[in-house]
Amino acid sequence: MNIKTIFVSVFLAAVALPAAAFTITGRIVGVHDGDTVTLLDDAKRQHRIRLAQIDAPELRQPFGERSKQSLSELVYGQTVRAECSTTDRYGRSVCTIFVGGMDANLEQVRRGMAWVYRQYSNDATYLQAEETARAQRVGLWSQANPQQPWNYRNGGKSATSSSSAQSDKPPCGAKRTCREMTSCEEAMHYLRDCGVSSLDRDRDGVPCETLCRR
Q: Measured between alpha carbons, how far is 57 from 77 in angstroms, rounded to an integer?
């Protein structure tokens, strides 16, 4: 075996190796949406991080801003440990973020603020958390037909069918308070189809109790 053959063999073996996992520690100084943050490490370097295994609603989707707010409550200003597995095509580190012993990625799913990103995860713990959130109709699951963010981004068939399924429903107007609702049915529509979660302050799935519990 000549030197050239040895070099090629070593190169191919290196390329075949998976990217090594790595850890970043520091403080979260920015929350951009429900699954993307900026971490500032001790050397004052900023790291853009995409939360692994989950996909949060886009900011323009129902619950997009709520998901961002939820993640802010969990991690903003906190010193965290980011266990990272790879870097995505946008140069972001793909990581699970821990605040003490809490898995912030998993907590977003538990709160109904993100889907499990099935293309990149088959973790049973995450899947069970999503099923529980769905069953309890918390967060985005309070909607009748929540649209997966990957379909929203791609404008795929699922996004089209979701729009068609809702075409016979009343439009979402500017109403935001129970005082503006004229019936329980209207309150349910604004909660489930329009994502106005403020109508269900105790998060029991029933909006405007004065109307819906008569």
A: 22
Right CATH number for 20-142 from 1.10.760.10, 2.40.50.1000, 2.40.50.90, 2.60.40.10? 2.40.50.90
- Residue 92: active-site member: yes
Which of these, 208, 203, 214, lies nearest to 189 by C-alpha position? 208
Q: Point out the catalytic residue in the list 66, 92, 111, 137.
A: 92
pLDDT over 70 at 11, yes or no: no
Catalytic residue among 27, 45, 48, 50: 50
Q: Which of 58, 65, 83, 180 is catalytic?
A: 58
Q: Is the model more confident about 73 or about 172? A: 73
Say whether 179 is catalytic.
no
